[in-house]
Each structure stands twice: as C-alpha cells, then as structure tokens.
Amino acid sequence: MLLTLSTTYSPATDLGYLLHKNPERCQHFELSFGRASVFYPEATPERCTCALLLEVDPVGLVRGGVGLAQYVNDRPYVASSFLSVAISQVFGSALSGHSRERPDLAKLALPLTARLGVVPCRGGELFLRRLFEPLGYAVQVSPIALDSQFPEWGASPYFSVELSGLVRLQELLSHLYVLVPVLDDQKHYWVGKEEIDKLLSHGGQWLAGHPAREEIVHRYLKRQRALTREALAQLVQAEDQLDPDGAEQVRATEEMALEKSLSLNEQRLEAVASTLLESGAKRVVDLGCGEGKLLECLLKHRQFEELLGIDVSWRSLERAHERLHLERLNEAQRGRIRFIQSSLTYRDERLAGFDAATVIEVIEHLDPQRLATFERILFECVGARLTVITTPNVEYNQRFTGLPTGQLRHRDHRFEWSREQFQTWASRIAGRYGLRLRFVGIGLEDPELGTPTQMGVFER
Questions:
Q1: What H or E segment, with its residue span, contains residue 132?
Q2: Which of 16, 79, 107, 335 is the most exposed place for a label (fewest CB within 10 A)?
Q3: What distance in Å separates the CA atoms of residue 437 and residue 77, rounded to the nearest whole number?
Q4: pLDDT tens figures, 125-154
Q5: What residues are paired with 37 via a beta bridge?
Q6: Count of C-beta atoms within a 10 Å radius of residue 427
Q7: Are 238 and 396 spatial neighbours (Cβ–Cβ below 8 Å)?
Q8: Rg from Cα positions in the chain
C-alpha cells in the first residue's frame, strides 16, 4: 500500500521538516500489523516527494484474530484503516499541525499533491469525488480493471487517486485519515465510542460543514446507528459552541450599530437587489446568507422563481426560518425559497446551475489562506452567470465614531480591504475566468476615502 505526498513549494525539501522525516535517508517503523517505510523518491528545491510504503502481513492478520478468514486478500495492497493508523503513528506531529523547525510553515496553505496507488471505493468514482471535491481538491481518478487482458470482466471497485490543492499539510493528512476508511467502508479493529473522539479530533474543523457528513460519519463508525447519532449531535454541538450565548449575533449587532447612522445595511440590500433585478436573474443562491435578510428582500419580487440560502451555521439558518416565518407562507411562496447547510470552501453540487450568486459581507470572515479555495468554489463550481460580492472598505473606517484606529468593524473579520486591494483581487479573478467586471460604491461617498462598502459585479 503506497501513499506519496508531493509539493512544489520553494524550497520543496522543507516538506521533510513538516513531516519530521529526513529526505536523505530511508526510515522504517514496526507496527502491530506490519511495517511502514518512509523514503523520498525525489528531493530537490523545486519539487519534493515523500513516500509512505505500508507492508501488511496478511498471515499475521488472520493469526491476530482480525476476522479475515482468507489468507489471500486485498488488505496488504489497498488504502484502508491500516493506512490511517500508519499516518497517525508515522506522521503524528504533522497530523497534529506541529513542526519544531518550521512552525510558521505548518500554518501555511501549500501546493500539495497526494497519490494513493490503490483505493477501494464502495460507491464508485462518484462517491469518491463527493468526499474530496467539496474540500477543494482537484481530483484525478483512474479506474483499475479486474484484468486488463479480459476487459469483458468489467471494472473493479478499485481506483488510483490523485488529490491536488492549496492546503495545509495537517488538513490534507486529516482528510486522508478520516476519509480513506470511509471509502473502504470497513475497519480492521473494533469500533466503539472512542472512535467518536478520533473522528471529532481529526474531522471536527471541517466535517461539520461537509455536504456528505452524515454518510461519512455513518461509514466511519461502521454503520452503528447509536454511535452515528452521538457523533452527529456532537458535531452540531461543537458548531454551536463556536457561537456561545449568541456571541455571533452580538458581534453582528455591534457592526450594525456602527453602521446604523448611515443606514448602510439597507443600502447594501437595496443595491444588490437592484443589480439582480436589472440582470433578469430568476434563480439566485445567497452564499453565507446568515439570517436571510437579502432573501427576505428578494422574496417580495415575483421575478425570482427560486431562492437558495446557504450558511455553515445551523443557528443562523434557524434564525432565517424564524425571520421569514416560512411555516406561515402560502404554498407557492414557500416553494420559491429554501435553506441548506454548506460552506463556502466546500464543493457542493447543489449550488450549481443558478443564474446569480451573491456573497454579501462574507469574504472578510474567511481566513486569507482559504480565499483560493473559495474562488474555485464560487467561480468554477457555482459558476453563476452573475456574481455579486460586497465587502467593507477599510479606508472608510476612520469616519466611524467610536471605532479605534486600526480596529476592524467586526471582531470576526480576518481582514478588511482597501479599494485598491479589492479591485486588484477582483480584477485577477475576472481575468482568470474571462468575466466582465464593474465596481459599485455603496453608501455616502467621501471624496478622499470612497464609500463605506464596495461591491464587485462579475458577469459571464
């Protein structure tokens, strides 16, 4: 069983520091079910590849009481829970996100490629893509025939897989640790409640918003319904703890109070709604919809036949349902609007095919290293004819009374852009995807500082 990890980050040999494995020598690790070897097929400043070769002893497995009745089986060759155990034991520091020599590098998203020689996938290529593409990876899949000399025998359940993306090494390893056994749909050891802790430890940061999270949890826990229910409940609870006692709502209220004197929120909604009406769009998806204020505004116009709001927070979606009083709407109105949980950084097929996509005061809440993934999701996966993005203009902040110099408008903002920064970012995207682009200022314009909100309108 073979896993390789490659990077073109410069210098690429820094991969050795992140994995805590010296590229200049081969290392061996004895495991309870076999032997793991780590070596580097290539190690240059331009490109570096680390290989994890896992040799499983099938005779030892049977003798050890794993439950495999046959001495001849696929376990020594295919990516499975054995590989997950090897990753945790051999690359434990990297899996936890630590690097003694390169601590700052461990926090950066790097160009990484993982290759799995043979992956058993009970569900086929489509299911494999459903697991990894929402995480932002470019996925290449090569089916493996049962026998190349006898094509009439058909396809096997095995694939060669390559995953490429701009991602932190810890994230890549955690995705493999959790999802490889999910693809295989079995584990070589007894699954009990302690597996929930492992799942939440390695998947808690990304699994809650994954569109296939229920199926992932169900398979990871060997289809034990009680464990699945408990794990899903803890995922929801963990998400809620990110917003204790309505802290998210409190921070949003603070931001609204700051901008209230300018009626800025109302002006934003009006500007976006007007742009959508003028475009003739009938089907609109609002990414990061929060409490559904924009969709509430759009629902008043008959032009919009289908409205979809997505947000990573269940609590925000619940508040959106309450705000719109969905249960009181007549059947025709209720059929025009719906809400789903998803994330801006996960590929989700349900978001494709809309006339227009809106991202209102959202991107500044993303970690900067996530922006590249967000761009691909928005302009490749969603791929709407019209995309509208609004974000604060940081230059205008000095005009807000009570906002200390250098402080951002919202405590959860990861950044706020100047007009030049936003226009440079948007222009690069427009050039890459061949889009027409125009900028619109929202709010009272200051001769020196511009408007408090800036809006980019992308058209295909």
A1: helix 124-132
A2: 335
A3: 50
A4: 888 888 888 888 889 998 888 777 777 777
A5: 28, 53
A6: 14
A7: no
A8: 25
